[in-house]
Design a protein that fits this description.
9 strands, alpha/beta, Serine Threonine Protein Phosphatase 5, Tetratricopeptide repeat, single chain, 2 domains, Rossmann fold, about 450 residues, 20 helices
């Protein structure tokens, strides 16, 4: 029987390797009839279920293998991966911790644990994990890149650059590492070197809109009307876990609160409200007391996951602002903090806003200030647009919106320097009786 099982295991492994997943599953199940507590076979069966896009089945098998005495560490590792796929980062961390206690040099487990810690917002612990990952698996390009991303978030820009360079040494065609290194070099003022890495990204991925956009921010060609949605999504998906900690604590970001104080004298109860580019929902608690219906939209699904944890919104939608707006009824208030900086030409955005406001409805928003009123807007090497006061007022007027409040403000810090901005509130025509809002 032992020899028969060994033969069947080889057949199952070969079928799995060749992509004959049904045959592999059948063979592994047959072996488990004889050896129900084989961690090796349970883990192999779980990976078949993963390859068949059946994560629920895989999870059950991995859990059984992980609960064996002793547990299958490979199954534990795969169970950790599934928990990360499900968004249970704390659960994944507990599993990876148990793994590295048994196998301290398991570089992949350290790397994945670092990713999970970043998602929970603990960047320092993430860096500690990534450092262990590269110590025990020095040829893991992904771990070096992840280390660089975490260092970048803590403004360790030169260290991050070295980590990205190490990832590229290991894997020269690692497009993400080239892109990340380009961004770091751009922050350090090494613009020509940054340009070279963006061009390398485009050699590897010719359709990479983010790399094209960052090249345009360096002045290599005429800038587009807006940052590509792919680029904005990449930024905020990557930083969703650490967004609030870094933005509020490190960059002293107070724009949502400042904007609310500007518009609050004009607010009444029972409003229908749209949070345009809501992110993690930093401003939502200010508007909730006034809102009968509060919906948040954002291009980043991971930011929306964080916003949902606040349990404040009535609805959250993945949404590209430049797509067709299909809301069933207009809003009483649309507010948008630090979102218009990703759009140069504001005309299509303001047009959509105006067409989705009730008469008497209001828009409250922020922009980075461009001192030169002779120019409408300008794309800077930060990858963000600044707008002149005159341009914004003209755009509002063109779409029937009348400014009622405006003020200068420091909207955030960048590399230790204050970033000047404008906060504006505008109204659409005279007020009319409110219509019921349908979800």
């Amino acid at each position: 029987m032992k020899n028969e099982c060994e033969h069947l295991l080889k057949q199952a492994a070969l079928a799995h390797q060749e992509g004959r997943l049904t045959d592999a599953e059948k063979a592994y199940l047959e072996i488990l009839n004889e050896r129900p507590d084989s961690g090796l076979v349970l883990n192999a069966l779980g990976t078949v279920f993963l390859d068949r896009s059946q994560p629920d089945k895989a999870k059950k098998v991995f859990e059984k293998a992980a609960n064996l005495k002793p547990p299958s560490l490979s199954a534990c590792y795969n169970l950790g991966r599934i928990k990360q796929m499900e968004g249970d980062d704390k659960g994944a961390i507990n599993i990876y911790r148990a793994i590295v206690e048994q196998q301290p040099k398991f570089g992949l487990a350290w790397n994945n644990m670092g990713v999970a810690y970043r998602e929970t917002g603990d960047v320092e612990e993430a860096i500690s994990c990534f450092r262990r990952a590269v110590a025990f698996a020095s040829d893991m390009a992904e771990a070096w890149n992840n280390l660089g991303v975490a260092q970048d978030e803590l403004h360790m820009i030169e260290n991050a650059s070295r980590s990205y360079q190490k990832a590229i040494e290991i894997q020269p065609d690692y497009a993400s590492a080239h892109f990340n290194l380009g961004v770091s070099l751009q922050k350090l003022g090494q613009l020509k070197a940054a340009e070279n890495h963006y061009n390398t990204v485009l050699e590897i991925r010719p359709d990479d809109e983010a790399a094209k956009f960052m090249l345009q921010s360096l002045g290599t060609s005429t800038p587009p009307d807006a940052a590509p949605a792919q680029h904005v999504r990449r930024i905020f998906d990557q930083c969703a876990g650490t967004f609030e900690t870094i933005l509020v604590n490190d960059l002293e970001y107070k724009t949502p609160e400042l904007l609310f104080h500007l518009v609050s004298p004009h607010l009444k109860q029972d409003l229908t409200v749209l949070d345009l580019g809501c992110g993690t929902g930093l401003g939502s608690q200010f508007y909730r007391p006034y809102a009968r219906f509060l919906v948040g939209v954002d291009v980043s699904s991971k930011m929306l996951q964080k916003a949902s944890e606040k349990n404040i919104y009535d609805g959250l939608i993945v949404f590209d602002i430049l797509q067709d707006w299909t809301f069933s009824q207009p809003f009483d208030l649309i507010y948008s903090s630090d979102v218009f900086v990703y759009f140069g030409n504001l005309d299509p955005v303001i047009r959509s806003v105006s067409s989705h406001l009730v008469h008497g409805g209001m828009i409250a928003f922020s922009v980075e200030e461009l001192a030169d009123n002779s120019t409408g807007y300008q794309l800077f090497p930060s990858g963000r647009y600044a707008h002149s006061h005159r341009y914004v007022r003209d755009c509002l007027k063109h779409h029937g919106l009348i400014p009622v409040e405006e003020t200068d403000a420091v909207i955030r810090k960048q590399s230790g320097d204050e970033v000047k901005g404008l906060l504006l509130v505008a109204e659409k025509g005279p007020k009319s009786p409110k219509k019921a809002f349908r979800v």
